[in-house]
Amino acid sequence: MADQDNTHTADAGAYALELVDLRKSFGKTEIIRGTTLAVKPGERVAIIGPNGAGKSTLFNLISGRFAPTSGEIRLNGARIDGLKPYEINRRGLSRSFQVSNLFTRLSVFENVRCAVLWSLGYRYAFWKFLADLRDANDRAEEIIEMIHLDKRRDVLAMNLTYAEQRALEIGITIAGGSNVVLLDEPTAGMSKSETKRFVQLIREVTAGRTLLTVEHDMGVVFGLADRIAVLVYGEVIAFDTPEAVRADARVKEAYLGSVLADQQAAAAGVGAAAPATAGQGA
Length: 282
Known about the structure:
The chain is α/β, with parallel strands linked by helices. The chain has a domain at 101-177. Helix content is 35%, strand content 21%. The protein has 9 helices and 10 strands. A 6-stranded mixed sheet has the order 6-7-8-3-9-10, sandwiched between helices. The protein is globular and about 55 Å long.
């Protein structure tokens, strides 16, 4: 599908990422139902929605893990639907996952350098010494400093704290210099203090990049996002600024009101559902 005409709209290149009537069915069940979304370069967008809304499926479509049933996905104006994940990555989109996926027996530096080597197009050759690849090594050092793990440079990934592992994963995600970054529940499992520091880290490392994040923590969502897309049963029912989304009657009825009520009740200790589960799932 990706080799089709790239002239959907005259200003397609104005968007870093564009979804046009995107649909995905598994058998007879339609999970994504005509989603249309246009994200501007440098914009931070949070995708929220109840369990089963289709958030993870949407990320899998954008990153190439799933092929859409119909519709278009455009990255910087060019069609990418139907491409393989590594092909999409080469075109400037990278993604992290809910579960950390690190080389646990390699150091922080070695993990980041692996990602840098891939992004620079290096291939394995037994006569090449990694220590001699100055461009890759210098870039890896820059990223480690950027994610504030320079003092943990030589520590094995398995010996990092959970928050440090998540920071390392973000470092790997941005190692190739992608201008569009997808973060899947980046603060899941973190304490309040860890979350606060991590949100600041996300701001720093995504400066100048376009960010899409699936996030269940409403404090993170409203504090980080320029715009919020609310996904319910595979459809975007609202896509606007945090203030407009907060005031949207459809959003309150379908999702946000119940989530905020649960969080307030939990904070008051009345036994409501833990907010950490809100918005998780497909």
